Each structure stands twice: as structure tokens, then as C-alpha cells.
Automatic annotation (TrEMBL):
Keywords: Calcium, Disulfide bond, EGF-like domain, Glycoprotein, Repeat, Signal
This protein's record includes keyword Calcium: yes
Residue ranges of coiled coil: none
Gene3D superfamilies reported in the protein's UniProt record: 2.60.120.200, 6.20.200.20, Laminin
Any single Gene Ontology cellular-component annotation: extracellular space
Phylogenetic classification of the source organism: Eukaryota, Metazoa, Chordata, Craniata, Vertebrata
Pfam families tied to this protein: EGF_3, EGF_CA, Laminin_G_2, VWC
Identification of the protein by name: Neural EGFL like 2a
GO molecular function, one term: heparin binding
Domain EGF-like as annotated: residue spans: 440-481, 482-522, 523-553, 555-590, 602-637
Disulphides: C525-C535, C543-C552
Length: 754
């Protein structure tokens, strides 16, 4: 059969096999049909959908109850019960920033299967129960709530979960396997979690549950590419023809190359080795320090020299000599009860303190007369060190290595207190006990490397390299992978995070100065921002009005710093983060409440009756006060006694022990009221001790007041979800009271129990 005939036959075969993707009705749960939407559910309106082939409904309001009857729920649960492979499908157009549930199968607080989309957090959440009967939530950072149409599918196959959005594979994860051991009295809700929470707002269409793996193919048939289309086959035929042409040309080139190679059979090319500028011929050997080396086929092969213990006769001792690897027997001298070998020197001092230097030569100690005086030292005497092998002292920290040493290649000279020693470089091991000669460690052969998947370890002098296999790209120094999600941008790392490509995926780590899980990173300020300040970048706080400083730790005294100029009829009173132009005694605000006190006007205490003049006195109004004039010299005062102090009638003052309250004396009576506080716009607030106005805090457990968000729940010690604002007694205790504060659990001992 010719290629063209084969092409036609396969085109007909594939065209007939991929016409449609059928699903057994026994494996399909069409939620709209099962719930009979359109039969009078409040809050639902049938509208135009993404396409016109099926119905679409607009979900709105928060007084609806779209749930299946007990009989219908039992039928749907029967299809799901005990299954470990299923797919949830939906076509949605969710209102911008709405957070709501698409589908929920739950009993009480246990969610066996729930798909939720959070526009506030830009997340898709899959809630389910694990096989060990624990509640689990798998979070996929992705925003569906953008007022646009999206095809969504979540396919579960045992512990394998795949999220598709608009026929694109967004996430693929391995999770704890769900348990579909669903009780018969389970509730089945659409567009909400229950009658009070999780209301989805927007349009939904084609909401289905397929009890099968890879159900997303029903939503996106083009993803079923296990069999080629006719167009695919045509392309394959074209590629085969191109490869045949390339093969013919390559065969011709190989034939010509073989002819040339045959002409080289009579040639002999000797391969040599170049070491430290010296050329060695094939099979030539040489000694390199403590290694015997040979040139073999152009490659240097070395083996460490094995030094047998020397058998030294009397009067000699083994010692290293310059240029030799192994110890050799050397004549010894006895000096001060110790053996010294040839060339060793020792310094002694006589009774007069004079230093004498001796050297071991020919088995006896000989006096060495110095030819030059000792150099002058530029350090104090306390920093001068006397050495055992020379008469001249040196300063502490003297560079002995610069005077010459025996440390060879791959060994470093290290200065000590009174001399020097040799230390092998990293990646090398000593060939002698004095570390003067060192040999490379083959980390690859000895398994002392960190090369991971898809790499090959290659030894290098003092280290190793991890070489990527052909067709793989580097992640880091030790790992390689087929794809670089970080480089392609197909990752979910925060803009303030670093993306690290890994085998089979990637990881995110917040940049220095930021904290979080990598997908969400927030700036981190050392010591935290005080007084409600916001950390906007590493160690940078934006302070709330009225505070300053690098940590917003300083209250701005608007009164003392000249930021505020109050009217002459008022006085400036500084408050934490705020100020107040308070009307002076004898004045009150006319109702305009101007910030600088211009609205303070004189109080006509006589006309308003705000005076304590007795019936036998006459009231005279004054600017900022009044006067009770007593005829016939009677005592007519109407002052107040407050905290053992006299306050005139009409006088207004701030309490010494409570700077947040204002008091006034009126007709002998004292009245006090709290000062107004500036508004705060934050989730958690607390009123610090000694202050009256609330401040923003980041720790919810320190907060007096919280702005509850019922979408942020807590999981208690029984794995029960608690809504924000709820409280309970911790299991196993009688006095530990716990409270859910916007996703954070705060526990404390209830003082009423003590």
C-alpha cells in the first residue's frame, strides 16, 4: 500500500473515532437538571450563557436556598459514594471580587466535596475529607472573579488533582487522597455553602460532576490528543519524507568520510601528555610530589606513593627532607634531653640572659654565630614572642609563611603563634602526615557529591561538577529538569519572591526583607512598625497620621512643633497621634467645629443661665467668663470643687489622670465627656494602656476589636471549622477560652474560672 493510500485510510479511521466525546449517563451528574433549576428558586434568573446550547442562570442576592431535595441528594450521593476518580466541571462568569461556593456536598461542618472561588484572595479552593477523616483544603492561587467567562474543571484521580481553566492546565498536584464515604443524609448545594454563607454571585452554566478521570476532555475535547487527527497524520507524513531525504544525504556524507578514514590506516599519531609545561610521551612515567604518574593514551594517570616505615639504625631517626616524599633516616643530635635531626636549630639563654643559637650537624650541636643584629620590632614588648629555634623575637601575628615553607601544590601554608604549618585545600586530602603534599578527592567515585536527578557527576581538581544530561536544562548547581517554569513565567511566585526551578515543578522563596510562603510575600520590618504603621518594603514603615520615626515610634506633638496654630480663644492639646484645639474657659464651639478653634465663641453665661450667681447677686457677662457681683458685700461664688481643686463655673479642663476626657464646671456641677478620636482603617485595633484612641496592630491576639470576615475561618483542635468571631472552650480544659479572629486562633485563660 502506498503512502497516499495509507494516509486516506487513516484519515477516515481517525475522523470517525474523534467525532465526539461521549459520557455514559450513569457516570454523569448534571446538577442543573437534577435540581430542576427554573422551578421557582428565589435569587435565580435564567439568562444568556457562554453558549446557547444549554441553560445558564444568574445567581444574585443572599436570601436564596438552592439545594437538592433529600431524595435527589441521595441519588447524586449514590453515584459519588466510594469513588476515587471524579471531575467537577463548571462554566462561570463570577462578579468581580466576589467570594462564593460553586458546588458544595457537606454534612454539618464536614465538607466532602466543595469547590469555592475567592475573588478577595484570588484563589480557587477544593475542600474535601481525607481517608483519615480529616478536613482538607487544597488552595490554587488563581482569580476567576473577574466578570469574565471561564471554563473550570477539577479532576481527581486518587491522590492526583489537576486544575484546568479555559482548557489550559494550570496546576497538577499530588495531595492526600479524598474519602468519598459520604453519608446518605448529606446536603447538596449549588452556588452557596448553606443558607447563610458562601453566596456565589454571577452566572453559571454546565455545572456537572463526572464520576471518571480526565473528565475535562468532555469540556475541552481538543485536550484528548491520545489519537492523531488527519491533519496531525498529514504532518507526520511530511516529517517522514523530510527525514528520508536527510537520511539519504547523511548516508552519502558517511560514505565519503569512511573513504578518507581508510586512507589514514597507515598513519601513526602518538598522543602525549602536557603537565606543568612538560611534554611526556606515551607510557612515559614520572614522579610528581607524592604520586607516580604515567601518560596513557594522552591521559595522565597518577597513583599515590606508598611509603613503608623506615628501619633506621641507632643514632638516626626518620624525617622528611626537601624534594623527597617519604621519610628518610637522618642523623640525630641530643640536646636538652630531646632528639633533633640534621638542620634543626635551638636557641638557649645563658645565665647573663644572652641568647645562643645551636644547629644539629653531623650528630652534634654546633654554635651558630649570627651575622646580623636582630631587627627592631615595631610592637610593644607584651606583643613580642620568643621562639625556640631563633634568638630574635618576633611580633605576635608574624608572617612565618613569607620566610619560606615546604607546602607543595594543593597545600596552603597557615601561620601559627610561633611558626607555620601546611593545610590541604578544600577538595584535597593529605598524602603525608604533615599535609605538605595533597591529592584530589574524587567526589564522584566516592559518592561525596550532591548531583541529583538528570545529571552526571564529573570530577574536577578540588571539587566536582554536575553536568546536565542531553536535552535537560539547569535548575541549580546540582539539579536539571526538562522545563524551566521560572524562566517561562509559568509560576505562581509573588513579585517579591525568588523562583527556583525544580524537577517536576518549582518552588518560591520570599526575597530577603520579605516574609511569607513564596506565593504571597509581605515586607518585613525589623522590630515591626509601631502605632499602626504599615510595612511597605523591607525596613520601611509608612506611619499613620500623627506619628513619625523609622518605626513610627514617635508621637508628633503638633502643639509643641508648631504644626498647629489654634485660635486665641482656644488652646492646643496634644493627643497620641492627634491634637485638639480646645476652647478656653468661658468659650464654647458654635457648632462648626473648626480644626483650629475659630468656631470658639464667648459663652454668655448670664443669658444662658450657665452661671452660679445666687439670687441675691447680679450676673455680668465678660469675654471668656462672667462675674457675679454681690450687692452689700455678700459672698456669691458658684465654683466647683474637683479633685480637691477649685474650678470656676464655666471653666473647661482636661483631667490630669485621663487625658482623653474633658470636664467642665457648670453651676457648681462637674460634667466630663470623652474626646473624639481620629478614624482608623485596619483589620485589628487595640487601645494601649494610658491612651484613649485605638491603634492598628498586626497580631490579632493583641486586638481589642476586629473587623470580622466570616469567609476567614479557623480549624480548632477537632478540625472543626469555626467562623470568625466565634469562641469555644478548648478541649480537655475548663478555663481556656479560644476565639477565632479572621483565621487566627487566640486562646487565653478565662479569669472568671479562677
Amino acid at each position: 500500500m502506498g503512502i497516499l493510500q495509507l494516509f486516506l485510510v487513516l484519515c477516515i479511521f481517525f475522523a470517525s473515532s474523534v467525532v465526539g466525546f461521549g459520557v455514559d449517563p450513569a457516570l454523569r451528574i448534571s446538577v442543573f437538571d437534577e435540581l430542576r433549576l427554573g422551578d421557582g428558586f428565589d435569587g435565580l434568573t435564567q439568562v444568556q450563557g457562554f453558549h446557547s446550547e444549554t441553560r445558564a442562570f444568574h445567581f444574585q442576592g443572599s436570601s436564596r436556598e438552592v439545594r437538592a431535595s433529600a431524595e435527589v441528594s441521595a441519588q447524586m450521593v449514590k453515584k459519588l459514594k466510594g469513588k476515587n476518580e471524579f471531575t467537577v466541571l463548571a462554566t462561570v462568569k463570577q462578579d468581580r471580587l466576589n467570594s462564593g461556593v460553586i458546588l458544595s456536598v457537606h454534612q454539618s461542618d464536614h465538607r466532602f466535596l466543595e469547590l469555592e472561588s475567592s475573588g478577595q484572595r484570588s484563589e480557587v479552593r477544593l475542600h474535601y475529607r481525607t481517608k483519615n477523616q480529616q478536613d482538607h483544603t487544597e488552595v490554587f492561587p488563581y482569580s476567576l472573579a473577574d466578570d469574565q467567562w471561564h471554563k473550570v474543571s477539577v479532576a481527581v484521580s486518587a491522590s492526583h488533582v489537576i486544575l484546568h481553566v479555559d482548557c489550559n492546565r494550570i496546576y497538577e498536584r499530588v495531595v492526600e487522597a479524598p474519602s468519598m464515604d459520604i453519608p446518605e443524609d448529606t446536603s447538596f448545594w449549588l452556588g452557596q455553602r448553606n443558607a447563610a454563607h458562601g453566596f456565589f454571585k454571577g452566572v453559571m452554566q454546565d455545572v456537572e460532576v463526572l464520576v471518571m478521570p480526565q473528565g475535562y476532555i468532555s469540556q475541552c475535547p481538543d485536550l484528548n490528543r491520545t489519537c492523531p487527527t488527519c491533519n496531525d497524520f498529514h504532518g507526520l507524513v511530511q516529517k517522514i519524507m523530510e527525514l528520508q531525504d536527510i537520511l539519504a544525504k547523511t548516508s552519502s556524507k558517511l560514505s565519503r568520510a569512511e573513504e578518507k578514514m581508510n586512507g589514514l590506516d597507515g598513519c601513526y599519531c602518538e598522543r602525549t601528555c602536557s603537565v606543568k609545561g612538560v611534554i611526556y610521551r606515551e607510557d612515559e612515567g614520572w614522579t610528581d610530589g607524592c604520586k607516580n604518574c604515567t601518560c596513557t593514551n594522552g591521559t595522565v594517570h597518577c597513583e599515590a606513593i606508598s611509603c613503608p616505615p623506615p628501619q633506621c639504625p641507632a643514632g638516626t631517626a626518620p624525617a622528611y627532607i626537601k624534594g623527597a616524599c617519604c621519610k628518610e633516616c637522618q642523623p640525630v643530635c641530643l640536646f636538652g634531653g630531646r632528639e633533633l635531626v640534621e638542620g634543626d636549630q635551638r636557641a638557649v639563654r645563658d645565665s647573663s640572659g644572652r641568647c645562643l643559637l645551636f644547629e644539629c650537624r653531623d650528630k652534634s650541636m654546633h654554635r651558630v654565630v649570627p651575622t646580623e643584629p636582630c631587627p627592631e620590632l615595631n610592637c610593644p614588648e607584651s606583643e613580642q614572642i620568643a621562639l625556640s629555634n631563633r634568638c630574635c623575637k618576633v611580633c605576635r601575628g608574624h608572617d612565618f609563611c613569607s620566610e619560606g615553607h615546604g607546602c607543595m601544590e594543593h597545600s596552603d601554608c597557615v601561620n601559627l603563634e610561633a611558626g607555620d604549618c601546611c593545610v590541604c585545600k578544600d577538595g584535597f586530602r593529605p598524602l603525608r602526615d604533615d599535609n605538605a603534599y595533597c591529592d584530589d578527592i574524587d567526589e564522584c567515585a566516592e559518592g561525596k557529591h550532591y548531583c541529583r536527578e538528570n545529571t552526571m557527576c564529573v570530577n574536577t581538581p578540588g571539587s566536582f561538577m554536575c553536568i546536565c544530561h542531553t536535552g535537560y536544562i539547569r535548575i541549580d548547581d546540582y539539579s536539571c529538569t526538562e522545563h524551566d517554569e521560572c524562566l517561562s513565567g509559568l509560576h505562581n511566585c509573588d513579585e517579591n519572591a525568588l523562583c527556583f526551578n525544580m524537577v517536576g515543578g518549582h518552588s518560591c522563596s520570599c526575597k530577603p526583607g520579605y516574609t511569607g510562603n513564596g506565593t504571597v510575600c509581605k515586607a518585613m520590618c525589623d522590630g515591626l512598625c509601631q502605632n499602626g504603621g504599615t510595612c511597605v518594603s523591607p525596613n520601611k514603615c509608612v506611619c499613620q497620621q500623627g506619628f513619625t520615626g523609622s518605626r513610627c515610634e514617635t508621637d508628633i506633638d503638633e502643639c509643641a512643633d508648631g504644626f498647629v496654630e489654634c485660635d486665641s480663644k482656644s488652646t492646643c492639646v496634644n493627643l497620641p497621634g492627634w491634637y485638639h484645639c480646645e476652647c478656653r474657659d468661658g468659650y464654647h464651639d458654635n457648632g462648626l467645629f473648626s480644626a483650629n478653634g475659630e468656631s470658639c465663641v464667648d459663652i454668655n453665661e448670664c443669658k444662658t443661665g450657665r452661671n452660679t450667681c445666687a439670687n441675691d447677686t447680679v450676673c455680668f457677662n465678660l469675654e471668656g467668663g462672667y462675674d457675679c457681683r454681690c450687692p452689700h458685700g455678700h459672698n456669691c461664688t458658684g465654683d466647683c470643687i474637683h479633685d480637691n481643686k477649685v474650678k470656676h463655673s464655666g471653666q473647661i479642663w482636661v483631667l490630669d489622670n485621663d487625658r482623653c476626657s474633658v470636664c467642665s464646671c457648670q453651676q457648681g456641677q462637674v460634667d466630663c465627656w470623652p474626646l473624639p478620636c481620629p478614624p482608623v482603617d485596619c483589620e485589628f485595633t487595640v487601645v494601649p494602656e494610658g491612651e484613649c484612641c485605638p491603634r492598628c496592630v498586626t497580631d490579632p491576639c493583641q486586638a481589642d476589636t476586629i473587623r470580622n470576615d466570616i469567609t476567614k475561618t479557623c480549624t480548632d483542635e477537632h478540625n472543626i471549622s469555626r467562623f470568625s468571631g466565634s469562641s469555644w472552650i478548648k478541649h480537655g480544659t475548663e478555663c481556656t477560652l479560644c476565639q477565632c479572629k479572621n483565621g487566627h486562633i487566640c486562646c487565653s485563660v478565662d479569669p472568671m474560672c479562677l
